[in-house]
Amino acid sequence: MTAAPDPAAPDEAAAKLAKAEHAFEVGDFGQARALARALRGASDAEVRERASALAKKLSIDPVQIGVLVACTLFFGWVVARYVF
Predict the structure, then answer these.
(1) Any idea where the domains of the chain sit in the sequence?
(2) What is the pTM for the complete model shown?
């Protein structure tokens, strides 16, 4: 037996999306990330697309990871070369 779709679900998803976008605007990236991740499976296509776009904005940039690793390796080289 399948449950009947909740007619309020699209409105609820849209309200959660608005809350996620507002959290992003005010800088609460943790809450925005959690809400956007939860809305990626929403039944409304527009909500899904906007939630995915928001989640993409909040994801970690691979270039930042590369720069962090390069700086760490350089620092380690400087310490090994000039301190020890």
Answers:
(1) 9-59
(2) 0.66
